[in-house]
Amino acid sequence: MLNRIPFTELEAWVNEPLPEDVYCLDIEGSSRRRPSDDQIWKLIIEKTGVTNNSAFQQLDNNTKQQVFLELKDCGASLRQLERLTGIGKGVIHRIWNSGKL
After folding, report:
1. CA-to-CA distance for 15 and 20, rounded, in angstroms?
2. In the chain, N or C terminus with fewer CB closer than 10 Å?
3. CA atoms of 7 and 45, how far apart (whole Å)
4. CA nearest to 40, candidates 87, 76, 92, 64
């Protein structure tokens, strides 16, 4: 049978400061936020000159591949790129994994 800890005892235990010899792992860069859709779209315009997703889809495969890889490095998400460009997430995922269209 489970023994229950009274709430006051649990609260005191949780709020107790850690000893000096205990180290916690701090994850660097975890506060990095994803760029907004507007920021990503501005980058797409800068890199390709297109003004809408239909024009982006008509670009040659090498250009699209290069743009997707650069946007990945900028922190864009797979679904975000799918939503903005109209290109399926499976295609984008393959580009990210293999570097090819």
Report:
1. 15
2. N
3. 56
4. 76
Token digits of residue 99: 């570097």
* 47, two tokens: 């890199």
Tens of pLDDT, residue by residue over 38-91, are: 999 999 999 999 999 999 999 999 999 999 999 999 999 999 999 999 999 999
- Of 94, 22, 29, 91, the closest CA to residue 56 belongs to 91
Give the Cα separation of 81 and 84 in Å (integer): 5
Helices and strands per DSSP (H, E), number in the chain = 6, 0
> 85: burial class by Cβ within 10 Å (0-12, 13-18, 19+)?
buried
44-77: b or e for each residue (b if 16 or more CB lie within 10 Å)? beeeeebeeeeebeebeeeebbbbbeebeeeebe
